[in-house]
Write a structure and sequence with these properties.
single chain, 109 residues, mainly alpha, 97% helix, 0% strand
């Protein structure tokens, strides 16, 4: 084997070694990127779960407020009906109060 071919073989070996090192370094970078992506995915899953929980709580509060408003509306309708009947009773009582003395005056003549 000549010196040139031994030298060329050494260079070839050195190039293969550097290429293997670059490939290993590239694999490390890819692995770190993949791990970071997995961590980001997990973080986003946690954030989505928190957002979902918050949405459920807000929806429950909204539904509760909707029910309270519905009940208040029904109470208002009932109180208006009650007040209208009380007004009718008050008018009848007023007419009776006025009619009493008038009837007394008319009967006493």
């Amino acid at each position: 084997m000549s010196i040139n071919s031994a030298y060329a073989l050494g260079e070839l070996h050195e190039m293969k070694k550097k290429e293997a090192e670059r490939s290993a370094e590239q694999q490390k970078v890819l692995l770190k990127g993949a791990e970071a992506s997995v961590e980001q995915i997990e973080l986003r899953k946690q954030q989505n779960k928190l957002l979902s929980d918050n949405y459920e709580k807000i929806k429950a509060m909204y539904d509760s407020q909707l029910e309270i408003n519905r009940e208040a509306r029904n109470d208002l309708k009932r109180s208006r009906t009650f007040n209208a009947w009380m007004m009718v009773i008050a008018i009848i009582a007023m007419l009776a109060a006025v009619a009493g003395p008038i009837a007394t005056i008319l009967v006493s003549r």
